[in-house]
Write a structure and sequence with these properties.
- This protein folds into two domains: 1-73, no CATH class; 82-379, 3-Layer(aba) Sandwich (Rossmann fold).
- It has 391 residues and is α/β, with parallel strands linked by helices.
- It has 13 helices and seven strands.
- Mean pLDDT is 89; it is low at 1-8 and 57-69.
Length: 391
Amino acid sequence: MKSVFLILILVFATALQGQRVSDQQLDRLLKRFPEADANGDGKLSMDEALEYRKNLTSTDGKGMRRAGGTSFDVDPGWEKDDFPKHAVSLRSPEEIKALYKGSFPDLPKSDDGVLRIVGTGHSFMAPGYKTLPLICEADGFTQPLFTHTGGGMTGSARYKWEQENGIFQFDRKPTPKLLAAISNAGWDAMMWGPYFNDRPEYYSCWIDFCLKYQPDMKFYLSDAWIRLFPLGANPPKSEAACTPEVLMKLEAEHYAGFKQLVDTLNAKYPGKVFILPTSRAMTLAAVHQVKGELPGVEGLHRLISGKERSLWRDNLGHIGPGFDRLEGYVFYATLYKKSPELIKGEIAFRDQKAAFPSDELDRIFRKIAWQAVIGNPLSGVVDANGDGIGD
């Protein structure tokens, strides 16, 4: 496996040596390295390719980090009780702001319940980060959202903490974008996307820093979604085995891992940490598809069905066209404890004028999102009377 990965890195590096890279070359690279698509738009730009190549081949003296898989090195500094003394998070707000040199929103707390949100994440979070503001706009308000994202591992909570602090693999080379914002402006919530082999300490460092400046903040971790076949394995020949029972079993197993992580964090920070149940939403959508109840959707997984309009589109499990809406609805429903079915305004999605997704499918997405949120005990949302408003 290691030799294969080295060959792929060589292919990637060779293709980027020249100043001119064709769209066709970028498309081929994207098929090999889907996580290079940092913004999740299904296209690979030259900047994304170069950034991914840098992260793919970088080392910290302890060996190669495999950005597309489950095996990678973690600096032994994470095993210590304290971070290095030069970590940016240990500095004053004024010093952190001076190091960043960038701008960030600084808004007063809303009287109408609008949340000021910071977040990290990767390409699994990008669809929701893009659609959430559009959904909120249709509901009559502007969503304050300030993020620091990256592709694959480079968008993980651990990686961003090291990068922002200038520690471990980024020793004394900090980019304190969120640290500057959190310590110098008001925020109500922080969001993250998960990554392989996550540990509670990758999140507790962020939580401790946030609560130091914003004691009332709450924290939301997306649980991504299930895989229909193991990462790196060849897809099955048919979707016939993906029955509703099989899908819900995969969901239950997936949920158990995230429950353990969130329960551990909530034991330390009671009532502070919640799940954005994107996985349950995708699983419910998959069950609907198996039953023929998603109009216009043609398959579960493009690598199995060969159909473009599928729930999943590649080996890593990136979502297919239209499902960015579903993720955005889950974000909205969890954060605002309100069913997206209640939104009356027209949502300015980029595919709004297209035939797909249809209005009928969009309504189903809204319903699924609310079902997923109120059906997950760790979302923090309960709707006992069924009025679409969290109790």
